[in-house]
């Protein structure tokens, strides 16, 4: 079974500052993927970034980077230079990569509010 | 815009009724997933189809069923609706190879009264 834990229900950050959203996971799979999604108030789920369990480098996508620490089973999302448009719910998710089980298991989410 | 479309955007119906939610995946994507997002349960996986065949089931109630058609669009049927079925229902799609990140549609917000 897979489990994702996001311990920060809400976070505040000042515009232009960096923020780290925490995510820890538990799985018995050897090969797995970790994903972050953004859900603005409009409701849609937007894919942000992916990290594979065997990837040696931390993933980066523009202002998003994933701080992957396999031994600690953590996959924190770092958003640099926060913008007002970054205010949203952020979900960490994972799935097995080498089986037919492609469904995502999601954490409970972190609500980020960017203040001017 | 993810390229995944879902209709309708909103649906209000009464307990005991049946509704059908529709999803069209991104062009070329063979896998379709259905998820339910509710305040008390969070985001939960319901069911996955790949190229017309059911691949995996999650916490899908027996009152719910789904199918994927030859043109790859999918429908989620919810019957004997209860108040607790009120939720945001997402469809997501992914390619058949590679990382297979899932792209989500805008969701259908179902309200059961």
Summarize the structure.
The complex is a heterodimer of chains A (116) and B (113). By secondary structure, chain A is mainly beta. Chain A has strands spanning 3-5, 10-14, 19-21, 24-26, 32-39, 46-52, 60-61, 64-69, 74-79, 88-96, 105-106, 110-115.
Could you describe the 3D structure shown?
The complex is a heterodimer of chains A (116) and B (113). The model of chain A has no long low-confidence stretch (mean pLDDT 95). Chain A is mainly beta. In chain A, 35% of the residues are buried. Chain A is 0% helix and 52% strand. In chain A, strands 2, 5, 6, 10, 11 and 12 form a six-stranded mixed beta sheet that branches. Chain A has a four-stranded antiparallel beta sheet with strand order 3-9-8-7, with no helix packed on it. Chain A has strands at 3-5, 10-14, 19-21, 24-26, 32-39, 46-52, 60-61, 64-69, 74-79, 88-96, 105-106, 110-115. Chain A starts with a strand and ends with a strand. Chain B has 113 residues and is mostly beta strands. Helix content of chain B is 0%, strand content 53%. In chain B, the strands form two sheets. In chain B, strands 2, 4, 5, 6, 9, 10 and 11 form a seven-stranded mixed beta sheet that branches. In chain B, strands 1-3-8-7 form a four-stranded antiparallel beta sheet, with no helix packed on it. The termini of chain B are far apart. Chain B is built from no helices and eleven strands. The model of chain B has no long low-confidence stretch (mean pLDDT 94). In chain B, strand 7 (64-68) and strand 8 (74-78) form a beta hairpin. Classes of the chains: A mainly beta (116), B mainly beta (113).
């Amino acid at each position: 079974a897979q489990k994702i834990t996001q311990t920060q229900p809400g976070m505040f950050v000042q515009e232009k500052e960096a923020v780290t959203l925490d995510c820890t996971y538990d799985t018995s799979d050897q090969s797995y993927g970790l994903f972050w999604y953004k859900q603005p108030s409009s409701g849609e789920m937007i894919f942000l970034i992916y990290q594979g369990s065997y990837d040696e480098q931390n993933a980066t996508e523009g202002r998003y980077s994933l701080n992957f620490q396999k031994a600690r089973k953590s996959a924190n999302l770092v958003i640099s230079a926060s913008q007002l448009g970054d205010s949203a719910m952020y979900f960490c998710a994972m799935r097995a990569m080498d089986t037919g089980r492609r469904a995502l298991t999601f954490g409970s989410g972190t609500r980020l509010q960017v203040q001017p | 815009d993810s390229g995944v479309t879902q209709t309708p955007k909103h649906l209000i119906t009464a307990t005991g009724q049946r509704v059908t939610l529709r999803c069209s995946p991104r062009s070329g994507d063979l896998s379709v997933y259905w998820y339910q997002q509710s305040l008390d349960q969070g985001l939960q996986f319901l069911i996955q189809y790949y190229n017309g065949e059911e691949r995996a089931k999650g916490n899908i109630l027996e009152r719910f069923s789904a199918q994927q058609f030859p043109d790859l669009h999918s429908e989620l049927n919810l019957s004997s609706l209860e108040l607790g079925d009120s939720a945001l229902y997402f469809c997501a799609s992914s390619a058949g190879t590679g990382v297979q990140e899932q792209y989500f549609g805008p969701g259908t917000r179902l309200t059961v009264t």
